[in-house]
Amino acid sequence: MSKEINKVAVVGAGYMGGGIAQSLALGGYDVVIADADEARTAASLVRLLGEAQEFEDQGLYPKGATAEIKSRLTNGGTIENAVKDADFVEEAVFEQPDVKQEVLKRISAAAPADRVIGTNTSTIPVHVLEPAVSHPERFLTVHFSNPAPFIPGVELVASQQTSPEAIATVKEILVRCGREGAQVADTPGMVLNRLQYALLKEAFNVVEQGVATMEDVDTIVRTTFGFRLGFFGPFAIADQAGLDVYADSFKTFEKAYGDRLATPEMLVDEVKKGRLGVKNGKGLTGDFDDETKAELIAYRNKAYARMQDLLKDLGPAPRGKK
User: Fold this and answer.
1) Cβ proximity of 139 and 89 under 8 Å
2) Nearest CA to 84 among 13, 15, 11?
């Protein structure tokens, strides 16, 4: 069962915190912001309202969004004042454990003991920050991605002490704001950055080994498998390609690169069970009858065609000058 949430405080009104505050205001919550000092908070509020108007003018926010944000987003002054009567507090300060711990101590000392507190950390395990929070059953990671107004996914990480009520409360907030929450285990980097950094690490390896240039790596990623990732995750993509195909391909990688790209045991086990993906109706993500297969293929083709149209409409992304 979740708690009723009406007022939200966002502590840390920089780029990430400000975007989170806008998103929560557009979700219908009254939001107060607080930064390092009252002058910085006041400046942040002016900036956020100006950004909202720019987004609305560009068609990125719906008509009337700026007025909605202006009516709900206010300057909370000090951290203590901002959180004292908030139902939910989201901390979004620098990604440094000592800084976050100090701010979380201030938040948990000033906020009522039953109010849910989230931290917008992208890599720090929740158990590292939890000791700074009194009544840790109300504390969890609520990790928005950059830019917060436009990226729908949010990682949630509970500690062993986080209550089911706190988790349910945050999930309800996210739904109301049009976000998708995914709960993962408490490990460094969680899932988003563990996967993202693994890709970046391999991209650096490719360039350092002279296999391809940075420009060609970026082109390959954005025009091939990256093109698919807006619609399907890696397991769904593997189901469509064929799990046996992936298992055979891993043999080549394992021979060339060793344990770093060894065949996952889970994949070997699934293929042994006869689960080959969409082509035989038995995949990692579920079973597919003929009707479901046809619906999936039709969705995939439509999605990719529309993505091509969108990219043609937007044109190439601006690149840095060398």
Assistant:
1) no
2) 11
pLDDT tens, 123-138?
999 999 999 999 999 9
Domains and their CATH numbers in the chain: 7-184 (3.40.50.720), 224-314 (1.10.1040.10)
Helix or strand holding residue 106 (H, E): helix 97-110
Residue 222: partners with Cβ closer than 8 Å, 6 or more residues away:
none
Contacting residues for 80 by C-beta, under 8 A, at least 6 apart? 106, 109, 110
d(CA 77, CA 297): 53
Global pTM reads 0.93
Token reading at 187: 């490990």
Question: Which residue type occupies 263?
Answer: T
Structure-block tokens of residue 273? 């069970």
Q: Helix 38-57 crosses helix 15-26 at what angle (to 10 degrees)? A: 60
Span of 37-41, 43-47, 107-111, 262-266 with lowest mean pLDDT = 37-41
Any residues with CB less than 8 A from the CB of 246 and at least 6 apart, and which? 238, 267
State the CB neighbour count (10 A cutoff) for residue 56. 18
User: What CA–CA distance (Å, rounded) separates 33 from 37?
Assistant: 11
